[in-house]
Write a structure and sequence with these properties.
Number of strands: 13
Shape: globular
Number of helices: 16
Radius of gyration: 22 Å
Order of helices and strands: HEHEEHHEEHEHEHEHHEHEHEHEHEHHH
CATH architecture of the largest domain: 3-Layer(aba) Sandwich
CATH class of the largest domain: Alpha Beta
Strand order of the largest sheet: 3-2-1-4-5-6-7
Oligomer: single chain
Helix content: 40-55%
Strand content: 5-15%
CATH superfamily of the largest domain: Glycogen Phosphorylase B
Distance between the termini: 22 Å
Length: 387
């Protein structure tokens, strides 16, 4: 059988992608994901051109004659204006520029200009209630998108099962496509001058690592409580380093947790560091801890594994799907048990090495080449089915 992307290789098509939902002042994994998605799609699909809708100050670094960047609409640093643009303006602009479909994150526009919409869904926050306009909007936008999108793309099988909960049937096709990994960056081999990179951002020689923006659901205080259970001599050897941007007072809550646990002097808050430094930071860590309450994938887990960093993770079905047997599974709500698991990784070299080897093997399952092939094939098939 001839692969779908080869059968349609001679048919040019333009796809529009809105990344306006990203706040240029607070980068997340979406920034890397969509850059790599488009970059790999350009290499694999020479017949596909792109319209990328980005805010005036939003980073976009993929330069190619087949990529046009449209900067006439605001990004999510102006939330109200961004929502208006995404729902009422972007699709019409994309259609006027010749796009055959529009790719979004978490919604289908109220005005689609007749374009089929492919909705990425990377968060399930809409399932957890909440009050206020933001929570209401997420529930409304996702529910509407699941009814009206031509295709929904999710990043794990577990996420797919959550969409079907309480529904008799899903009318919209759903593609499960794991997130990719930049293997050329996230690898176990150290680069020249790497120790200087770690010193420049204030890292000690050895450390336990926590990586994320300080969202409430990431539960940084629980990771700190588990770390506080380590023997004093282990904490002295392995300080806890927390890397990530603040969000709604989350960093202050984590700092308070460190003071309350008596480990304030052993914890170091670096803030958000340059993306280029992340691989070196992972490679220098003894372990990566993730106490999260929920995920739809777990990007930091794959990045850590690819760099040879053992992972101590909250026991969630989705994280087991991603890491398989290449991690230590704990319930961070049981701080004593989580502390015992973390202490073993810090003090048992053979145990840490087994985790390192298993993680390197598991990380090979994730690539942006696969992501681009899966998603572009599904988008092309969705377009063909509508003709």
């Amino acid at each position: 059988m001839v692969p779908a992307q080869e059968t349609s290789a001679a048919v040019p098509v333009t796809l529009a992608l809105s990344i306006l939902c990203e706040n240029p002042l607070r980068r997340t994994g979406l920034t890397t994901l969509f850059h790599e998605f488009v970059a790999h799609a350009l290499r694999q699909y020479p017949e596909v051109s792109w319209l990328v809708f980005a805010g005036p100050n939003q980073p976009w670094e993929v330069a190619d004659e087949r990529v046009a960047v449209v900067r006439e609409f605001p990004a999510n640093d102006q939330r109200g204006a961004r929502l208006w643009a995404d729902h009422f303006c972007v699709a019409a602009s994309a259609q006027a520029r010749g796009a055959a479909a529009l790719l979004t994150v978490g919604f289908v526009p109220l005005r689609t200009a007749g374009l089929p919409v492919v909705m990425h869904l990377f968060s399930l926050h809409h399932l957890h209630g909440g009050v206020g306009s933001g929570a209401w909007y997420r529930r409304w936008a996702v529910a509407r998108g699941l009814r009206r999108a031509a295709l929904v793309i999710v990043n794990s099988h577990w996420t797919r099962t959550q969409l079907g909960a309480g529904r008799s049937a899903m009318r919209t096709p759903v593609l499960v496509s794991y997130e990719g990994l930049q293997h050329e960056r996230f690898r176990p081999e150290a680069e020249v001058g790497e120790a200087a990179v770690r010193a420049r951002v204030g890292l000690p020689p050895e450390y336990v690592l926590w990586v994320s923006n300080f969202y409430d659901y990431k539960r940084a205080p629980l990771a700190i409580a588990a770390y506080a259970r380590l023997a004093p001599e282990v904490r002295e050897r392995f300080p806890l380093v927390l890397v990530g941007g603040d969000w709604a007072g989350g960093r202050a809550a984590a700092e308070a947790a460190a003071r309350a646990a008596g480990v304030e002097r052993a914890t170091r808050f670096l803030g958000w560091v340059d993306d280029a430094a992340l691989p070196a930071i992972y490679r220098g860590a003894r372990a990566h801890v993730l106490a999260t309450r929920e995920e739809t994938f777990g990007r930091s887990v794959v990045e850590a594994m690819a760099c040879g960093c053992p992972c101590v993770l909250q026991d969630l079905p989705v994280l087991r799907e991603v890491a398989a047997d290449a991690a230590v599974w704990v319930n961070f709500s049981d701080t004593a048990d989580a502390g015992v698991a973390l202490q073993r990784v810090c003090t048992d070299d053979l145990h840490a090495e087994r985790l390192r080897v298993a993680g390197l093997r598991r990380a090979r399952a994730f690539s942006f080449e696969t992501l681009a092939r899966e998603r572009l094939t599904a988008v092309r098939e969705a377009l063909a089915s509508r003709r």
